[in-house]
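Consortium newsletter contribution from the modelling node. Members have asked for a concrete example of what our holo predictions look like. Here is one, prepared for the P-hydroxybenzoic acid complex that several groups have been discussing at recent meetings.
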Amino acid sequence: MRTQVAIIGAGPSGLLLGALLHKAGIDAVVIEQRSADYVLGRIRAGVLEQVTVDLLEQAGVAERLHAEGLPHDGIELCFGGARHRIDMHALTGGKRVTVYGQTEVTRDLMQARSAAGLPTVYEAAQVTPHDFDGARPYVTYTAKDGSAQRVDCDFIAGCDGYHGVCRQSVPAVALTTFERVYPFGWLGVLSDTPPVSHELIYSNHERGFALCSMRSPTRSRYYVQCSLDDADAWSDAAFWDELRARLDPEAAESLVTGPSIEKSIAPLRSFVAEPMRFGRLLLAGDAAHIVPPTGAKGLNLATADVGYLAAAIGEHYAERSDAGIDAYSARCLRRVWRAERFSWWFTSLMHKFPETGAFGQRIQAAELDYLVHSVAASTALAENYVGLPLELPLQRG
Ligand code: RFL
Ligand code: PHB
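And here is the predicted structure:
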């Protein structure tokens, strides 16, 4: 098979890239190692920046997002037994975020892809990128029926997440990686219960961090900071008790509990691999960088990379210019490092770090107090939370 762009990975990065390239008249094949149901079963991010919404619109897949997504103008910070609202909308001159699950984004992209008859290969084994340092790269894989397949292409997009094959195919000497692993995880629970508050609550508590989020007016997503043990060790009752203990009295009182639909522990990590381009292999999303989820930046960084990448590939074909491809890595990394900084800062501010002791807790309390009482400090939080701009004209092709 021959295509212009072979996309490895059918997560949000790969599917969105496929949709944006299709809009620009560029052929792509998406090759995914898991089944479509498995990909849809992963419960992950829930908050979309305006940049992500704009890109989904540009890709023509924002109809349901506009109908069902929940626009949020603020977040609440809970500490010292009380909640304090950060009015992001007022502080950023009218920007907001949209609460809409990654599962739904992925479902919309999958449906649009199959409705347009675009090729996606699921359950591909031994997916391998080849010869990306030359002019004729290709990807090989074993199809579900056991047959050996080869896709010749102009570019390979590595959208295969943190554990994917693309970054691992790059010679170690060509890569520099930066990493911080946090000594705790997040235990997440999804439940068909009404959210405790109509905005997200990020709580700093001496027992540890907690987050109250949602997927819809009838479905809640809650997290508590935990040790990296097995999620099975947590009964639903133990989870609800722990969450309640970390909220202010009013929220604790009004929290509606119910059976968990999903319960899992996610480790927290900051990670960046530089550069993001090796000849004709371009990495995007979690394949190149990971942030701890505290600032809700993971998915949004992935879509921003893809925005830059789709524009760069579009420029290659429409204008016969590789300026965008050449600038791709540096452009992404500038924005990536700013989001890494924000996610690290927000994680450090909100979580319990045993090693910092009572001094660290007092410093966090002082910073939170400053944050909610200083317009300058809350503006910096709001500006980063709603998302930094993409330095690119988005509408092309
Ligand atoms: P994904 O979503 O990991 O998709 C990569 C896809 O590539 C496939 N793949 C391969 N395909 C072919 N061949 C191979 N060798 C392959 N290896 C892997 C995988 O099966 C998968 O389908 O990466 P992408 O598209 O870059 O999207 C990034 C986002 O998914 C990610 O940043 C966020 O979900 C991060 N994240 C969260 N972000 C938030 O903003 N808020 C959250 O609450 C949040 N929770 C999470 C998360 C990430 C998690 N991970 C990665 C463990 C919770 C978890 C558990
Ligand atoms: C979520 O709804 O899953 C979510 C929201 C905000 C975050 C992280 C996760 O910062």
